[in-house]
Amino acid sequence: MPTQRITDRFDKVRAEGRAALVTYLMAGDPDIETSYEALCALRDNGADIIELGAPFTDPMADGPAIQMAGQRSLKAGTTLRDVLALAKRFRETDEDTPLILMGYANPVHSMGYTTFAEAAASAGIDGTIIVDLPPEEDQELRDAYEAYGISVIRLATPTTTDKRIAKVAEGASGFLYYVAVAGVTGSGSADPADIREGVERARKVSGLPVCVGFGVKTGEQAAAMAAIADGVVVGSAFVDHVRLALEAGERGDIAARMGTLAEELSSALKGAA
């Protein structure tokens, strides 16, 4: 079942005494073929779990880098079905790397929760992060996922109370995504010492591995976060490489650039073990 891949991956990195590297890319940025190459490059250079962004016209939780990535993807004509097809293609040669679809509720709702759950399972999606669908409103989606073992992965922040974390954890599985800083993706960076207590509380209340993200861009920052978290999420730093390569007229180097960053981050996490 899809969730089992997530559990197996955390068991693996835990046995290695390190945190998981969770990477992100926007599907279809700048095109689907490049995204496929980037997926493989991330996997081949140490990504333990890969978040696959689905573009949306009103990405309220995303900072400028991911917003622009989404715009490039939408301009290329990428749809939610294209994102699922990309995942399915990747899954044909990779049975082990967990894939998490990250996006917004509107496209999923438009497809229909049951139809989406069936298509996501068929594509090898292990879980989803639907950032604008709170626990109080996702029961129908959870019901659709249950038949396929797809994880509902939720967000918590330093301001999330114990009572709220318990609600966030209700019906969730896979891992908990801990947003280290207030604001949108790519904004600032947090001092691990400032969020250690919150991460520990989230882990204790939810009973799930906790992955910390938002603001992590370098191997040094990733290693520091690894001291307090079960996984470290890096997103905007990867997406920035797409923009930089396009601006330099080096579209063909995008996957290699992302692979180089993944290797740096992976090495840092192994060194911090």
Share of residues in strands = 5-15%
Uncertain residue segments: 183-187
Q: Give the overall silhouette.
A: globular
Q: Mean pLDDT, rounded to whole units?
A: 93
Radius of gyration, CA atoms, in whole angstroms: 17 Å
Distance between the termini: 29 Å
Q: Can you summarize the main beta sheet? A: 9 strands, parallel
CATH architecture: Alpha-Beta Barrel
How would you portray this structure in words?
It is built from twelve helices and nine strands. With 273 residues, the chain is an alpha/beta fold. The protein has a single domain, classed as TIM Barrel, CATH 3.20.20.70. Strands 5-4-3-2-1-9-8-7-6 form a nine-stranded parallel beta sheet. It is globular, with a radius of gyration of 17 Å. About 2% of the residues have low confidence.
Question: Which key terms come to mind for this protein?
Answer:
273 residues; alpha/beta; TIM Barrel; nine-stranded parallel beta sheet; 12 helices; globular
Summarize the structure in short.
With 273 residues, the protein is an alpha/beta fold. 51% of the residues lie in helices and 14% in strands. It has helices at 2-15, 32-44, 64-75, 80-91, 105-111, 113-123, 139-146, 162-169, 192-206, 219-226, 236-247, 254-272, and strands at residues 20-26, 49-53, 99-103, 127-130, 151-152, 155-156, 176-179, 210-213, 231-234.
Helix and strand layout, with pairings?
Blueprint: H1 2-15, E1 20-26, H2 32-44, E2 49-53, H3 64-75, H4 80-91, E3 99-103, H5 105-111, H6 113-123, E4 127-130, H7 139-146, E5 151-152, E6 155-156, H8 162-169, E7 176-179, H9 192-206, E8 210-213, H10 219-226, E9 231-234, H11 236-247, H12 254-272
Helix pairs in contact: 2-4, 2-12, 4-6, 5-6, 6-7, 8-9, 10-12, 11-12
